[in-house]
């Protein structure tokens, strides 16, 4: 067994052990800790006060007092309370429909404040655990060093050995406030009937798995359109990713081949295409390929067409418009892979090619055995991120066709709509937020699953030291 495999085996702890360890540590601290540590389970900061860490103890105590006051007093914002009342309202989402004399409950605020309250509880629990760890550490320091660390020493430690915690704390707070909590809020909306019929002062309620059933079964229009849209999304993702990827590799190898002149000029041209904002390029293509655009005019004058042919939203052929979108995306996306490939080719050791030629390998074998494996190995993370980016591609579809042409019986989803553009229409245009949230969840599950599985099984992950 190699040293690397031995290390991986030692560090790969069982999942159950990782789950049990925090609880085991919690019980161990309570059993082995002194009376001050045990009291810290009820009064935060007591262990720090006991070991003369007054500032740290005061911070923990104030946080506990503030949390208790928030949960008990339940301050109101727009007549909607926080605290324990927010948790009660979260279960009902409001009961008062309102009339001339009574203001209606706001289901959206009740759902939002319920999520915020749960987030505050989770953050307080983390602070509570940190309070216990701090009290236990102060006791251990007193036993081993004769005294606990001072507040200045703790601050100095945060700027030295624990500087990573100092830098990551603002990031953690920002991610929690602006990513995790909105995502949790969106997930909960998917299990309500918060749609276009439940806006304003109209209450909405929990519906459980009804939205999922209507989406995954063909009982209604939304269910009839989900699988076709998902199928086109996967088809689009595969074609748009691999055409740009292998097309860029081919062009990169071609331009960087020995004997090709004006390499710098070709690279500069492709860099200029990247410098052009993508939405400008897409709008230009939409006008060029329009029925009254220069491309149709040219085809008519050359005798290939008798009348204008629609290549985009007004087309009567789904295959034609989808092929046009894929080709347009190829034209816009291939320069990125080309420039990346050019940089990789310049860093492949020339000794590899010389050794291969000595062994009798020809140009094609060098390409297959050296160039392509090296490029694919280095660009595997880019390929995965490109695949996920195309799965969630919004600009190309929205600016070229806006999801059109329309489909008979389709629930707000055209022939070229991806899951993300369909989500946009349902949420922004139709205000069916519950269905939009549900599609967003399914999109996340698809992309995250694909990312984890493909990357964990790629050579870039398994053999990260292979080309060092």
Describe the 3D structure.
With 468 residues, this protein is mainly α. It has two domains: 193 residues, no CATH class; 249 residues, Orthogonal Bundle (MetI-like fold). A two-stranded antiparallel sheet has the order 1-2. The N terminus is likely disordered.
User: What's the tally of helices?
Assistant: 21
> Low-confidence segments, ≥5 residues, pLDDT <50?
1-13
The SS-based structural class is mainly alpha
The Cα radius of gyration reads 30 Å
What is the helical fraction, as a range of percent? 55-70%
Q: What top-tier CATH class of the largest domain fits best?
A: Mainly Alpha
The fraction of residues assigned to DSSP E strands is under 5%
**Overall pLDDT metric:** 84
Shape: flat
CATH fold assignment of the largest domain: MetI-like fold
State the strand order across the main sheet: 1-2
CATH architecture of the largest domain: Orthogonal Bundle
Distance between the termini: 21 Å
Summed up, the domain count is 2
**Order of helix and strand elements from N to C terminus:** HHHHHEEHHHHHHHHHHHHHHHH
Number of beta strands: 2
**Biggest pleated sheet:** 2 strands, antiparallel
CATH superfamily of the largest domain: MetI-like
